[in-house]
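Onboarding guide, step 5: your first structure request.
Type a short instruction followed by the sequence, for example:

Predict the 3D structure of this protein.
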Amino acid sequence: MKNTDIRALSLEELKEQIKTEKAGGQSLRFAHAISPLENPVRLKHSRKNVARLLTELNRRENEQANQTAN
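The system replies with structure tokens like these:
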């Protein structure tokens, strides 16, 4: 998922996508612990997607806090 795609999401969609990515990453880690994945780079991409989504969520929350403070 690219940053432009992430910015286009609504707040609720963003939160839902975070849940989905975290669950997907967890299932990948479990599968990798049992038997090696064909493409272990998927673990790295999953972590980075979660980080991108959380960064956008934090940015929006900070903007909202700044607007209410002013």
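Each response can be followed by summary notes, for example: The mean pLDDT is 94.
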